[in-house]
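Support case: protoporphyrin IX containing FE complex. Customer-provided input:
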Amino acid sequence: MPRLPIFLAGTSLTASECTLGNRHLKYGVTSRDYETFGKALMATLEAELGLRLTRETRDAWVAVYNLISSLMQEQIESAPCLGYLP
Ligand code: HEM
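Agent response - structure generated as follows:
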């Protein structure tokens, strides 16, 4: 079974100097990009795992991606990083 947010390894959603969401704002990432990225992630899992991607595992990936990407986008509103915005 795929490990859940493996792409978060070695980082934090709330690093002390600036949140992950705000760093992505600086990288130029928009809400549309989060949507596209989520679709690409799921298409990749489906292509790589085929029938091994069960409904339960698929739903878990969708849930965790939606949760993390929503938190990142909420951080932009709730915790602006002074001196770090573009
Ligand atoms: C759940 C969604 C995402 C997670 C967890 C995530 C995670 C990360 C992490 C941990 C980094 C390393 C640098 C840092 O911590 O600031 C990073 C960098 C980056 N991410 Fe994301 N990311 C996500 C979505 C996206 C999306 C949707 C895009 C654009 C399509 C994107 C573009 C970038 C770019 C441009 C960098 C900088 C790369 C570099 O400096 O070499 N990310 N991301």
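DSSP finds three helices and no strands in the chain.

Case will auto-close in a few days if no follow-up is received.
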